[in-house]
Design brief:
Length: 220
């Protein structure tokens, strides 16, 4: 599925989004979507090659819109710690309260699990690519440590996707803004600033700790 869309594509996706949040994915037919967009069903099918591709395009577009908001938030926060905190908090919160998610849960809760597990691969991939790009820019500017950003990006993207599917059940109540912020500040910010320690780094750290805290031997 291509990522560049013209005005007709956008009108089709707008119509699809509105119909999905009204009746759910299964009941949102191409005929209804075409009627809302003011075009023929043939045009919808020609441009998106079926309903599954259209739904995927809508979801990808909404994800990119959210990430564009994240970029704007990062530009207004002062300091790298605040930038990471505000942007990641926005991502974790929005994956829970986005209109598409909340309305789909309301009108067709039986569809949600299948929808986000089937479409989840593309969502996670978009999130990973975005976070990798953000971290790479921060590394180039000397704002965070030099490390392979992809494992960190995958952890964070998968965390966001997990919260979308299962918002409760853990020790952190992400519906509580203060608790969600505290989690991001203490867990996500250090992770994104310093990366994941490699085994060799852990050995060096252990050696340093042993040297620092061991009792010096008495001279013979």
């Amino acid at each position: 599925m291509r990522d560049g869309f013209d005005d007709v594509d956008e009108a089709i996706m707008d119509a699809a989004l509105e119909r999905i949040v009204q009746v759910g994915i299964r009941r949102a037919s191409l005929e209804d979507i075409a009627r809302r967009a003011g075009i023929s069903r043939v045009t919808v099918h020609r441009r998106f090659a079926g309903k599954d591709n259209l739904v995927e395009a809508v979801l990808a577009r909404e994800t990119r819109r959210m990430l564009a908001e994240v970029t704007g938030i990062a530009a207004t926060a002062s300091g790298v710690d605040a930038q990471i905190e505000e942007t990641m908090l926005h991502v974790l919160v929005q994956t829970r309260i986005h209109r598409l998610i909340t309305e789909l849960l309301r009108v067709a809760p039986d569809e949600v699990l299948g929808f986000y597990t089937v479409q989840g691969e593309r969502l996670v991939a978009i999130g990973i690519d975005y976070i990798v790009g953000m971290l790479t820019q921060a590394q180039a500017a000397g704002l965070v440590a030099r490390y392979d950003p992809r494992p960190v990006a995958e952890l964070v993207a998968r965390l966001a996707h997990s919260l979308m599917l299962t918002p409760g059940g853990g020790n952190v109540d992400f519906a509580d803004p203060d608790k969600a912020r505290a989690f991001v500040r203490t867990a996500i910010v250090p992770l994104m600033k310093h990366g994941i320690a490699t085994p060799s780094e852990e050995v060096k750290d252990d050696h340093f700790a042993e040297s620092a805290y061991s009792t010096p031997r008495s001279a013979p």
